[in-house]
UniProtKB/TrEMBL annotation:
InterPro entries: CUB-like_dom (IPR003366), DUF7591 (IPR056013), DUF7592 (IPR056014). Keywords: Signal. It holds the Pfam family DUF7592. This is Uncharacterized protein. It comes from Caenorhabditis nigoni. Residues 144-231 form the DUF7592 domain. The keyword Cell cycle does not apply. Residues 248-349 form the DUF7591 domain. Residues 28-133 form the CUB-like domain.
Length: 491
């Protein structure tokens, strides 16, 4: 009985070894029928590779073709020292992993490599390759960028195939965005976008949108044109974008990154040698950045749009002397670019809502979404609310406002829900510019309305301060407030 069990165990074990550990095979080439997915080591089954196993799997891709590779490598115990898996693409870019489950990669000609090194663990390993005899199926769109643009072109990366023509050279930066999709899905979508240095996909490939994101630099065309292609199969797991602008505006920038859901916060910017920049993006200007902290040296210029030589879209500039004094500051626009020159600084931005709750004295500004952008954003009401922790003296000083086409701007300050200040301006009742309006309360609202939601809006810019009012003085202000209400009531 024990003898038979021993034989059985022996057979099972030896059988396992012989089938479970395939030899390290030669290069993988497209099958005759390219609709067939090639799977290694065996179709539909995971195989455990033993410790000390090393193999480099070469995937060949003919010129003009692409391949879609899905890899799973699960170690029986997670190693922390060196990677069990490396994926090396056509331009020798290496990604290293300790653990992957159905991770997706895209190779173009001449191909790529998958390197398995099990080291001191057993690894369950499997990959599949699907070849495509052309790079893309989408009809391309054509985009132009020019040095005089203040607003970069944004390309949605879920379905993209475009040809860019620049006035000088084209610059591209990836901005990964917060999304309902997982980081893994977004990562694989960014891997599927390839950027070519020329008018079509037969030119030199600069790399994928994912490599661009990780490079902390711009991809720049050598000539006037750039081609962006999404490889097959299509994925829709991303709301990330590619920022495209004329290199004339960005040529001073060394480090340049897109900040979104994959970004590290706070952001360390090194402009000791060359300017350093980062951009964020909000579809339609619907959400804002809240700039909460700047520490370090140098000058941080903040643009609504891209960095420009003319600085016509510069919205704020901060230097050491202004560090931390008047923040947080709400930053609007669709694309926002933060460019540091001459120093090393750490910049922290957080979501919108933090800027709406005042805890300390602030001095800054309030703008509409499109101010200085010349964009036509479709909305009929842009409402911004601020709340304070106790009574604050709010001051508003309108510098600029477009009230054409029956647009209006209303400023309200409330104290415990009681109106303290309420002004509504329109073209027949315009505000006096450069005049301070103030009131003590714990809530303020600025509403910019337009009866024609799709009209072009010049927007507004208001200098804004909020100063905490001492508790001992609060009673006195109540009196002022009542007088103010009565006084407003007389009109
Ligand atoms: C090619 O492979 C696909 C799927 O594997 C199959 O449906 C098709 O019939 C094959 N074509 C030929 C010509 O063998
Ligand atoms: C592969 O496995 C799936 C489910 O795991 C099954 O539906 C399918 O029929 C299998 N295919 C082959 C070729 O064994
Ligand atoms: C290894 O790490 C992965 C992901 O980090 C985790 O899902 C898995 O459970 C870990 N495996 C072991 C054996 O700890
Ligand atoms: C690897 O698998 C073998 C056979 O199943 C087992 O004997 C060994 O202990 C495993 N090694 C590790 C490091 O898990
Ligand atoms: C490109 O490949 C897709 C399928 O992968 C196919 O449907 C399409 O017809 C091909 N386009 C060209 C121009 O060959
Ligand atoms: C881009 O510019 C070219 C010529 O400079 C022009 O023919 C084309 O219409 C422009 N395309 C777009 C989308 O503006
Ligand atoms: C790229 O090169 C291939 C093969 O030389 C050719 O068939 C294809 O038309 C070229 N594509 C473009 C867009 O020029
Ligand atoms: C700003 O950052 C510095 C350094 O990280 C930190 O010491 C300081 O507390 C921060 N200030 C605010 C207001 O978050
Ligand atoms: C603003 O955009 C309009 C088109 O919507 C254009 O005609 C105008 O020249 C632009 N103005 C500036 C200053 O760029
Ligand atoms: C608002 O009311 C609370 C009590 O309800 C009071 O403590 C506070 O001082 C009031 N705020 C102001 C600005 O008067
Ligand atoms: C609020 O600030 C304004 C501007 O500095 C000032 O004129 C006004 O007296 C202040 N109001 C109160 C109640 O302190
Ligand atoms: C503004 O509104 C008034 C009254 O509703 C209307 O008569 C006028 O035509 C409007 N003006 C514009 C420019 O739309």
């Amino acid at each position: 009985m024990w003898f038979y069990i021993a034989i059985f165990v022996f057979l099972a074990f030896s059988n396992g070894v012989s089938t479970d550990v395939p030899d390290c095979p030669g290069p993988f080439n497209p099958p005759n029928n390219i609709s067939t997915k090639v799977v290694y080591p065996v179709s539909n089954d995971t195989v455990t590779f033993p410790t000390g196993y090393n193999c480099v799997y070469q995937i060949n891709v003919p010129q003009g073709w692409s391949s879609y590779v899905v890899v799973t490598a699960i170690p029986s115990s997670n190693l922390t020292n060196s990677p069990i898996l490396q994926v090396i693409d056509f331009n020798q870019n290496v990604e290293s992993f300790q653990y992957v489950r159905f991770e997706k990669f895209y190779f173009i000609a001449p191909g790529g490599r998958i390197k398995l090194s099990t080291q001191t663990t057993n690894v369950t390993f499997l990959f599949s390759v699907q070849w495509y005899s052309n790079l893309t199926v989408y009809q391309p769109t054509f985009l132009n960028v020019s040095a005089s643009d203040t607003q970069p072109v944004t390309v949605d990366l879920s379905t993209v195939n475009c040809h860019v023509t620049a006035e000088t050279r084209a610059s591209a930066v990836t901005i990964p965005l917060d999304s309902i999709y997982t980081i893994e899905d977004q990562r694989s979508t960014l891997r599927s976008i390839f950027i070519f240095d020329g008018p079509n996909e037969n030119t030199t490939c600069l790399g994928s949108a994912y490599q661009l994101f990780n490079s902390n630099r711009q991809f720049v065309s050598t000539g006037k044109t750039l081609t962006v292609v999404q490889l097959q199969p299509s994925t829709y797991y991303s709301s990330s974008i590619l920022l495209i602008q004329d290199f004339e505006n960005t040529k001073e920038i060394g480090q340049y990154r897109g900040v979104g859901s994959l970004g590290d916060l706070p952001i360390v910017m090194d402009a000791s040698k060359q300017s350093s920049a980062f951009s964020t993006y909000s579809f339609g200007g619907l959400s804002s950045d809240c700039l909460v902290n700047i520490t370090g040296t140098g000058t941080l210029d903040v643009y609504y749009g891209g960095k420009t030589e003319s600085k016509s879209n510069l919205i704020a500039s901060y230097s050491e002397s202004s560090n931390g004094l008047n923040l947080p500051q709400k930053i609007r626009g669709v694309v926002r670019t933060y460019a540091l020159t001459g120093g090393i600084a750490t910049v922290q931005i957080v979501p919108n809502s933090v800027c709406g709750l005042l805890k300390h004295n602030v001095a800054g500004f309030i703008t509409s979404r499109e101010y200085k952008t010349n964009l036509t954003l479709r909305y009929s009401e842009d409402r911004q609310s601020y709340y304070s922790d106790g009574p604050f003296n709010y001051t508003l000083n309108i510098q600029n406002v477009d009230l054409s086409q029956n647009k209006s701007l209303s400023l309200s300050i409330y104290n415990n829900h009681t109106g303290v200040v309420n002004f509504v301006y329109n073209s027949s009742n315009p505000p006096s510019l450069n005049t301070v309006v103030s009131g003590v309360g714990n809530e303020m609202e600025v509403i910019y309305s337009s009866p024609y939601s799709n009209s072009k809006k010049g927007g507004f810019y208001i200098d804004f301060t909020a100063t905490k009012v001492e508790k001992s003085a609060a009673k006195y202000f109540d009196f002022i407030v009542i007088c103010a209400i009565l006084w407003i009531g007389l009109f």
